[in-house]
Amino acid sequence: MRYAYYTLAFVVVLLISVMGTRGLLSTRPPIQVFPDMDHQAKYKPQASSKFFADGRADRPIPAGTVPFGRNARQADPAFLGADEFHYAGKAADGSFARGFPVAVTQDLLAQGQGRYQIYCAPCHGTLGDGNGITKAYGMLVTPTYHDDRLRGLAEGEIFNTITHGKNTMMPYADKLSPDERWAVVAYVRALQRAHHATLDDVPAELRGGLK
Ligand code: HEC
């Protein structure tokens, strides 16, 4: 019988020690049996340091450092963001801009064609008619570029769609640099232009048997 009391007392002590203090607040650090790498020698932001001559743990940014990455524009508007047209496709009043911030050359179109065929043709088709290979696999929502609404889009809006995507179309900002996106916009315009071309667009000497 004595052992039964001992056992009961032991169980009560065990339960209270394991569960009894749950939820209590304490300012003391917890007992850590395995500290792993929780405690390391490190500087916290804005802390002081005896190591550096100026007494600061934060080091000044080396000369010539440029902001990099998706937040660079917000981080330093003077660096890139001054040109909203080039990097966001927007005019000063916030609307989508028409035209191009880069010179549209044969080289730009060739670059745009290459990027388009890699990144856009699987859905939009090599002709921009929405009949890419993904249609055969059930993606039926890809629009053609050749209807009046998409022909009427501002260049900046197409740039914005490439940058941020739209509904089921994913963004391409991580795959295409801003200049590459403008090259693709130019190529999309070329596809639209070609699709609506007439016999008058072909020089007389090249018409051959075309009617
Ligand atoms: C995974 C398939 C897919 C790929 C790849 C793709 N798109 Fe799209 N795109 C779509 C779909 C779907 C829509 C229709 C989105 C909607 O309006 O719901 C669309 C819409 C558009 C539109 C019309 C936006 C509007 O204002 O209605 C443009 C312009 C466009 N895409 C350009 C591109 C360009 C340029 C690329 C290559 C950089 C590209 N797309 C790559 C699927 C794709």
Description:
- This protein has 211 residues and is mostly helical.
- The protein has a domain at 106-197: Cytochrome Bc1 Complex, Chain D, domain 2.
- It is built from 10 helices and no strands.
- It has helices spanning 2-19, 72-75, 77-81, 84-88, 106-119, 121-124, 133-136, 148-152, 155-164, 178-195.
- The longest helix is centred in the first third of the chain and has 18 residues, at 2-19.
- The N and C termini lie far apart (112 Å).
- Heme C binds at residues 119-120, 122-124, 134, 141-143, 150, 153, 158, 161-162, 166-169, 172, 184, 188.
What's a quick, concise take on this entry?
The chain is mostly helical and 211 residues long.
